[in-house]
Write a structure and sequence with these properties.
By secondary structure, this protein is of the alpha/beta class. It folds into two domains: about 30-60 and about 305-435, Beta Barrel (Lyase, Ornithine Decarboxylase, Chain A, domain 1); about 90-300, Alanine racemase (TIM Barrel, Alpha-Beta Barrel). It is built from eleven helices and 17 strands. It has helices at about 30-45, 65-75, 90-100, 110-115, 135-140, 155-165, 200-205, 230-250, 275-290, 300-305, 340; strands at about 55-60, 80-85, 105, 125, 145-150, 170-175, 215-220, 255-260, 295-300, 310-320, 325-330, 350, 360-365, 375-380, 390, 415-420, 420-425. The strands form two sheets. Strands 1, 10, 11, 12, 13, 14, 15, 16 and 17 form a nine-stranded mixed β-sheet that branches. The chain has an eight-stranded parallel β-sheet with strand order 4-3-2-9-8-7-6-5. The structure holds pyridoxal-5'-phosphate (PLP). The site of pyridoxal-5'-phosphate has 16 residues, from strand 9 and helix 10.
């Protein structure tokens, strides 16, 4: 494991140009438990004289913190919760969610196999995603999956044919895409048409009775991402209800289930905004009753797991270039791609103590592209080669949403922290592991 030194550094002011670090305070995303455990681990390795600088970067998932968070989410009887496996398909993450009573939303055969490998019953699995082929849906049915979010007319027809052939009747939710005439009311902020689901006009061309092998009893809608305002979220959900109820009536289907997808946000940019879960439960109680459904579902990705995850890498080079202070890191978008595609950095901290003033650094990774940048973030000015940088909120869309192969660097390692013990789940494989 890479070297970690004693750290209690934190940013104590929003003015990043000349502020002192309060070493007794950490940002809310960085847990004391994680830092102290990593420090102890580092000391043990140092004492044993082992080679310590053997990893370019690693992820650490705090399963104790995850368990506590998930247990809070489960303490309600309004919402049925599913985990969007794409956010983090690591086995230990899946089993932690399963133990807390989550169900699983899978979007590929790979995700389905991974969930089944953790001994999760097929009844707890839901299949979403716009790229479902006839063969994939037949294979999912054969593997026992009985709940599908259908996203096209062809998917509906194919699923009906396969279900008839296999003599079963899966539950189906039709995925709906809505548009609003006024741009600001549109959850995507514009009227962009995506491949996720179909418009009400398209769905209204079907006759439910033409699909006797399907139990079409729900609607699914999910068109917004990383929302951080309860008010906005409630406003958006409220606007969905009338058109969806109307669609169900027009189709003559009984609307028993409403699935509102994911989209609950985490505060990557440290704006101080965050969602109140208690408020979400209250709001969804209202939505559920307005829609008149028996079940209300959410498939959570980042809101379930982001906060439990960290990414740690080390500084390889430091320089001033024109007016900009630059740090080149051992790992970048090869391990953590999301900042490059969203322009939202993961929050970062230095892992050792420092009372130096904060300076804004451009954090670059090791790839030969200017895209390889984890953000422009304030760090103590004395940060130096060999120092460890820890990034927070990295438990979702981290390891599997990266571009690990470019330039043949090492794959990131993965660790879990449970009951105070760190365990390695994945070693940092060299490029020879995948090169042919
Ligand atoms: C169908 C579906 N449900 C849920 C999610 C999870 O989204 P989030 O991470 O915003 O909760 C996704 C993410 O892409 C998705 O495609």
């Amino acid at each position: 494991m890479t070297a970690l030194s004693n750290t209690k550094a934190n940013i104590s002011s929003k003015n990043t140009s000349d502020v002192k670090i309060d070493t007794n305070d950490r940002p809310s995303w960085l847990s004391d438990n994680v830092v102290s455990t990593l420090q102890k681990q580092h000391e043990t390795i140092r004492a044993s004289n082992e080679e310590i600088d053997d990893e370019a970067g690693f992820f650490l998932y705090d399963l104790d913190a995850l368990t506590e968070h998930l247990s809070t989410l489960m303490q309600q009887d309004v919402i049925k919760l599913w985990f969007a496996v794409k956010a983090n398909p690591l086995s230990r993450i899946i089993t932690t969610l399963a133990e807390q009573g989550f169900n699983f939303d899978v979007a590929s055969q790979g995700e389905l196999s991974q969930v089944r490998k953790q001994n999760i019953a097929a009844e707890r699995i839901l299949n979403t995603g716009p790229a479902k082929s006839k063969a994939q849906m037949a294979a999912f049915l054969q593997q026992g999956v009985r709940t599908f979010v259908v996203e096209s007319l062809l998917q509906l027809q194919w699923l009906n044919e396969s279900a008839e052939f296999l003599d079963c009747q899966p539950q189906v939710l039709l995925r709906v895409q809505l548009q609003w005439p006024e741009g600001e009311k549109n959850p995507l902020g514009g009227n962009e048409v995506t491949p996720f689901g179909l418009s009400c006009e398209q769905w209204q061309t079907i006759t439910v009775d033409d699909y006797p092998s399907l139990n079409i009893n729900g609607l699914h809608i999910f068109q917004w991402g990383n929302m951080l305002s309860n008010e906005k979220m409630f406003q958006l959900w409220s606007q969905m209800v009338d058109p969806l109820v109307q669609l169900a009536q027009n189709l003559g289907m009984s609307l028993e289930v409403l699935d509102l997808g994911g989209g609950l946000g985490v505060d990557y940019l440290q704006t101080g905004n965050s969602l109140s879960w208690q408020q979400i439960v209250q709001d969804l109680t209202v939505i559920k009753s307005k829609a008149g459904v028996k079940e209300l579902w959410l498939e959570l990705g980042r809101y379930a797991v982001a906060e439990a995850g960290y990414y740690v890498t080390s500084v390889v080079d430091k320089k001033q270039n024109f007016t900009q202070q630059q740090l080149v890191l051992a790992g970048g978008i090869n391990h953590l791609l999301r900042p490059a595609i969203t322009e939202q950095a993961f929050p970062a901290n230095l892992l050792r103590n420092s009372s130096a003033s904060l300076i804004e650094f451009d954090l670059h990774g090791p790839l030969c592209t200017s895209l390889d940048k984890l953000g422009r973030l304030p760090l103590p000015g004395d940060v130096n080669v060999g120092d460890q940088i820890i990034f927070g909120l990295s438990g979702a869309y981290g390891f599997t949403e990266s571009m690990p192969f470019f330039l043949c660097h090492q794959i990131a390692a993965e660790y879990v922290l449970q009951h105070g013990v760190i365990e390695q789940v994945r070693v940092a494989e060299p490029a020879s592991w995948y090169l042919r």
